[in-house]
Amino acid sequence: MSLSNSLPLLILLSSLLPGLAIFLLREESFRLRTALNLFGASVKLILVGVMIWGVFHEQVYETRWTLAPGLDLVLHADALSVLFVSLSTLLWLVTTVYAIGYLEDSPHRSRFFGFFSLCVTATVGLALAGNLFTFVVFYEFLTLATYPLVAHKGTPEAIRGARIYLAYTLAGGMALLIGAVWLRTLAGPLDFVQGGILGGMDHLDPWTLRWIFLLLIVGLGVKAALVPLHGWLPQAMVAPAPVSALLHAVAVVKAGAFGIVRVVYDVYGVEFAASLGVLALLGAAAAVTIIYGSVKALSQDNLKKRLAYSTVSQVSYIALGTAILGPLATVGGMVHLVHQGVMKITLFFAAGNYAEALGVHRVSEMDGVGRRMPGTTLAFTIGALGMIGIPPVAGFVSKWYLGLGAAESGAALWVLPVLVGSSLLNAAYFLPILYRAWFGQPPAKWPGGHTHAGRWEINQALLWPPLLTAGLALAAGLFAAAPYSPLEWARLIAEREYSL
Amino acid sequence: MNEIALSLVLLSPFVAIAVLLATSTRWCLVLATAPVLAAALMVPVGSTLELGWLLLGVHFTLDATGQLFLVFSSLVWLVAGIYAAASPADPRARQGFELLFLLTLAGNLILILAADMVTFYVGFALMGLAGYGMVIGRRSQRARRAGHIYIAFTLVGELALFSALLILVAAADSRLFADLSGITLPPVAVGLLLLGFGIKVALPGLHLWLPSAYTAAPIVAVAVLSGPMMKAGLLGWLRFLPAEADGLMEWGPVLMLLGAAGLVLGVWLGLVQREPRAVLAYSSIAKMGLITALFGGALKSPAEAAPVAAALVLFAMHHLLVKSALFLGVGEWEKRGRARWLMAGLGLLALTMIGAPLTGGALVKQGLGTAIAGDFGVLSALLTLSAIGTALLMARFMWLLTRKVVRPTLTDSIPAAAWLVLLPVAFLGPFTPFVITLEVAGMLPLGVFLLGLAGMSWLNARWPGLWARGRSGDALTALNRVLQHARRRLPTPQIQYGRLQVALIRPETLPAPQGTLAGPGLLWLALFLGLLAATLLPH
Amino acid sequence: MNNLLALPVVLPLLGSLLALVWPRRADWAGLGASVAAFVAAGHIGAEVMRNATLELAVGGWAPGLGIALRADGLSASLLLMSTLVALAAGLYATTYFAEAQKRADFWPLWLLMITALHALLLSGDLFNIYVTLELLGLAAVALAALGGSRAALQAAVRYLTVGLLGSLAFLTGVGLIYAGYGTLDMVMLAGRVDAEPATWVALALMTAGLLIKSALFPMHFWLPSAHANAPAPVSAALSALVVKAAFYLVLRLWLDVFDVALSQASAGLLGLLGASAVIWGSWQAYRAERLKLLAAYSTVAQIGYLFLFIPVLLATEPGEARDLLFGALVLFALTHGFSKSAFFLGAGVILHRAGHDRIAELGGTSRALPVTTFVLALAGIALIGLPPSGTFLAKWQLMTSAIAAGQWLWIPVIAIGTLLAGAYVFRVLGHAFGPGEGVGPSLAWARAELPALLLALVATAVLGLGAAQVWTMVVPGSNAEGVSL
Asked: CA within 20 to 30 Å of B462's CA: A221, B128, B344, C237, which one?
């Protein structure tokens, strides 16, 4: 097997094998577990680096395994998959470090890290999926891998939250499966091809295709938290902070959004989808979600719940970018995939830090945290400003491209008020937090948490990840026009998509 | 070489921030502003700086307008910086104030030098948001409320600007200001620009944030707010609405109307204020109203736009200097009371503000008058009206200064010294060619001023306490009261969301077989018959 | 090498005799026979992959008079599965039955059941099938009664009664066929059978009889109590193998022998019953309070899935598409065999440790037995039909063919069944996540837990990733690589 055949598989194995091995470790083998984790993550990072270089130079990487006659499991690297894979890999590494610090002395760490690795394997498999069948396989696998993480704490609320999560995602998976099977019977093997394959098939009835699209979007929309399928997300906040960070920035929600991008661009083809009229539906759903999520976030006092609703709102930007015809909006949607991931993970890391060090779970308890934990709050501030869309943090760049795409395509001008309204709402629920944190009076005694004995405000493994990701968010915005930035990569994808 | 100079200008606030974080010295404020002033005076007009890899690709340039803005703004920033550095530290504010001061300065510099729309927006957003920190500097209850109103308005303005930006970039297919001249500006975009910059410039209706901010913020913040930051709005209009673009002529009358309204509003409300700061605030509103109207006039007749715009810029610069100087002086007054040199200095500033003869103000007024001499009848009337109104306002201002009793606190002399150095510059600026004329037009405001002073003293003697009364705050407080009233009346909606109920599980024991087999037996028979029938049917 | 075909029948029979004669060495006899049978089945499977069908006329007597044994892809794969399941369950049984006396009772019956099963799978004519079916039923009843409790005995008696009814119906049908066509050899019959009233009645009789034995809704009523009250290894065999044998027979009769006499309506009837079984079985499993009862109802549902394949198979034109679907059917049957037996074996371990199998109170036990919980999880994944189990591929194929054939009704049925299965499996697994310290990975009881683990891994990993081999075996002449629909 040459490198081009085996690289995708190797990337998958680099987290699968350490994960399986970690399951077999005892609770006390802290060093071995950490070593396995970091080793796997680093190897994966290197392999992904090789893949990025290769895809940039139009090298083809594909692994194909026949499961049944006519059903192939295909792992294929194109520009879009590389975007998502690199995001997942990088953030996995950072989250692993964070989780090691967060779960110090907690029970069931081996189980946690085992499923953690499986979760990343599923995400990477999803990203590298080369046809709809493979995508569905890894999509369901992701559900399986994430359930134990949500239920990790084992409290009744955790089990309940996990159950709700499962109900939603299994139902969504079923819808996706039915849609995929239906499409398969009509159109044959659904390999992802840039520009879409359905456009060229004239024998397909448009109404059937519309219904299939609806099914697929419903199935994907559960994970992507499109309203009204988003109900699991706030409930899943019972998970420990590293899980919320990874799930809501990288794995689950992005998987759904990524799936939507794939379906629209590489199965239907964006121009064909526009001609079918399904993009309008998607756009409307995305817009409703954006506004609804932000409105709900306003009324939440629990910090993680507020961030959850913010995620609901922000991930739909990706769907919105997909729904507008035109390369600029495409760029905006796809680059937001990366930007939102980095910014959101920063926010969740910070929220985890507040809970861990100070026992602060609610916004109303956050007065003066900036003084007590300046590093964490700085990271939080950068993330929040990015969410609002304030330059030069990365969020501005995605909003810019989305807005420009909307302005250029005359039909989608209604997107502008949605963008503006959403930014205002974001400001309304983030700025008060920032105000409290920096300008509020700290209480005499914090609600709880473990005080950290040491020079820094908190365990270093918990401090550097948010600062790193905040720095990345800032750099992604500041150097957006530099080569190898996420923006340039998104432009590359759009170029390859629209030239066909 | 020029590029390096420009980059140094832009970098100096950030270098100062680094110094601040490292050493916590407040003199970093001067470190930031002094080089900027020097550069502003020395860098030749027409220098450009392009960084393709930064953000979405940034372009900076120093053109004639930009140079004027840069010179005068940086002067104000410098003095404000010295003022802030030398004043006793507010124990509660700590480093936050200095940090945000520098960030606001950075934003201001970026937007002045920006040659493309996105960079301008970045600077504008930075300046507006960091300004919040300056507004709430003392963290008093009043300052915080003022800060909230300020941030709300600023955000709305910034988002309006953002939307306008998108539309303009889409229409012009380029982010550079230079490319805006060749296209027709979409009306939606122009409207949004008016909204966005109008908030900064405090057009009537959009001005509600200004009085509370100017009265509650620390004096350094107010000086900067009323000077460079307010004029940034004007710069925005100048940049985004170039005279050569199409589609602007219809907006001329709109702006003139709004400007006139602002002028009247400012004068009217300013006269009844009881705090000196508030009077100055409304005076700013009035002045910016005048400037808006003049700008509208320029838009209406693009052919004669150029000289009007030039004169307008000089006028605005003059106002920038004088207003900031006035506020800084008021700052001194709040600390020292009615020191004679202070009152004299303030009086001089008032004189140049109203355009008394032999002052710089008179010169700019003359320049304006000449420029609009054509067929701008309405504008000339407005100019006269403004002269009278300003005079009255300044009279009220001076009078309040003399009437209110202030307890002197121990103060540093450095701020005062800095202010005194600024004084002649403000008095005589902006240094247009010096022509001494004693025009009748120049005497009018002076006369009104003196009359006003006299009149107020007399009225006060007649009805003691009457003129010391007044109001502060304005429509916003009233609006707030109405809203609170309404909120108490309306019921809050309660929405219950259904939940995904997991079915209850009833306990069931391990079943032992019960009952006879009769039922199943019959069922089986039915099954057999059904199968038979199904097989038979098609045949 | 066709004598090979006799081995899977002869070896367990010998073993059972040995176990009867030497009770103290019963374990060795039994396990030895199981291993040998497994090896033989492996060889048969390999041969079938090469040559498509194996035949053996026992004693040299030509078919029609003598006993013919035949192995094609379908029977070879099922044979392989049953030997492996029997081996694992037998291994587990040596730990499950603590007293030697119980084991001495167990092994002969068990091996007899295995003999009958293998003979059934390899039989080439209807009479042999009847005989082996009876033997299988009797052995199964006896094994089910081994549980010893009153409920177990009552369940076993009911199973016996109902099974006898089924066998009698089957026999009547066989008699009618013989009267009509003069032969009972299936290959010869396939050539002679016509669509006429006698055939229809016979087919209906035989099918109805087999439906009881395979516990298709509404003839499933005897299964939950019988399987739940039986000892764990026996439940595994009953659910995984015995009911599967009856279904295998339905397939044989419908697809190979009586295909001309069929109609879409009858297939549709079976399909409807299967759909009801899926929904009813899954719902009851969801509501069950005890682990083994849950597993038993799950079997009812999974059998329903198997019957769902039939109308779709018949609606698809013979050719590549039908072969694909057939392979999927076999894959489903195989996966269910492995996963259900793994589930029962795991449930047995838990029952032993906790003294009960009430689901709501299993938290501590599942945490103390991480490997068994893992087994339940893997088996559960296969029962739900999530990747990477073979069931996922089979369901995908079923849905594809159903849509292609225009039979839309089955899609929501499959969807609901899958979701309910998800609900009841995760109800069990959720208890593994309670608060409190875990024990880390440890094999509490290697001999008991490992067989289950092996079976579960086959169901979820091997059959999932290596599924292409199933098609190679089942569909003659197909090469899985490069074939596209």
From this structure: B344
- DSSP string of C111-142? HHHHHHHHHHHHB-BHHHHHHHHHHHHHHHHH
- pLDDT tens digits for range B51-89: 887 888 888 888 888 888 888 888 888 888 888 877 766
**pLDDT exceeds 70 at position C477:** no
- Whether residue A407 and residue B167 make contact (CB cut-off 8 A), yes or no, is yes
B153 vs A contacts (CB less than 8 Å): none
- Taking the Cβ of residue C420 and every Cβ of chain B, the question of whether any pair is shorter than 8 Å is answered with no
Task: Report yes or no: C90 and C21 within 8 Å, Cβ to Cβ.
Answer: no
What span, in angstroms and rounded, lies between the C-alpha atoms of B137 and C222?
A: 81
Map out the domains of chain A as residue ranges: 1-162+234-265, 292-500
Q: What's the angle, vertex CA B103, arms to CA B101 and CA B106, rounded to 5?
A: 110
- Comparing CB atoms, the residue among A68, A153, A182 nearest residue C397 is A68
DSSP class of residue C20? H
Q: What is the pLDDT of residue C250?
A: 92
Residues of chain A with pLDDT under 50: none
Inter-chain CB proximity B54 and A167 less than 8 Å: no
Q: Would you tell me how many other CB atoms lie within 10 Å of the CB of residue A364?
A: 11
Q: Chain B: residue nearest C259 by CA? A: B535
Q: Left, alpha or beta for C385 (phi > 0: left; psi -120 to 50: alpha)? A: left
- Across residues C430-440, what is the average pLDDT? 65
Q: How confident is the model at residue B504 (pLDDT cuts 50, 70, 90)?
A: very low
Bridge partners, residue A362, by sequence: A302
Instruction: Find all residues with CB under 8 Å of A88, minimum gap 6, and list them.
Output: A120, A123, A124, A127, A250, A251, A254
User: Average pLDDT in the B506-512 region?
Assistant: 41
Closest alpha carbon to A345 in A233, A246, A468, A239: A246
Percent of chain B with pLDDT over 90: 6
Domain ranges of chain C: 292-485
How many Å lie between the alpha carbon of B389 and the closest alpha carbon of chain A? 38
Give the residues across from A73 on adjacent strands.
A65
Task: State the complex-level ipTM.
Answer: 0.87
User: Which residues touch B461 (CB under 8 Å, ≥6 apart)?
Assistant: none
pLDDT in tens, B426-438: 776 655 544 444 4
Instruction: Kindly state the helix (H) or strand (E) to which residue C56 belongs, with its residue range.
Output: strand C54-57
Chain A residues in contact with chain B using a Cβ-Cβ cutoff of 8 Å: 163-164, 167-168, 231, 389-392, 397, 399-400, 403-404, 406-408, 416-417, 419-420, 423-424, 427, 431, 438-439, 477-483
Chain B / chain C CB contacts < 8 angstroms: 96
Residue type, B226: S
Residue A64: Cβ within 10 Å count: 16
Yes or no, beta carbons of B512 and C155 under 8 Å apart: yes
Cα separation of C464 and B114, whole Å?
Answer: 61
Q: Which residues of C sit within 8 Å Cβ distance of A?
A: 320, 324, 327-328, 331, 381, 386-388, 392-393, 396-397, 399-400, 403-404, 411, 415, 418-419, 422-423, 426, 430, 433-438, 440-441, 464-465, 467-468, 471, 475, 478, 480-481, 483-485
Average pLDDT of the residues of chain B: 78
Residue range C93-141, pLDDT digits in tens: 888 887 888 888 889 999 999 999 999 999 888 888 999 999 999 999 9
Give B503's pLDDT tier (boundaries 50, 70, 90). very low
Rg of chain B taking only CA atoms, in angstroms: 31
Q: Using a CB–CB cutoff of 8 Å, tell me whether C290 touches chain B.
A: yes
Kindly state whether A204 is in contact with chain C, defined as any CB-CB distance less than 8 angstroms: no
CB-CB contact of C363 with C430 (8 Å): no
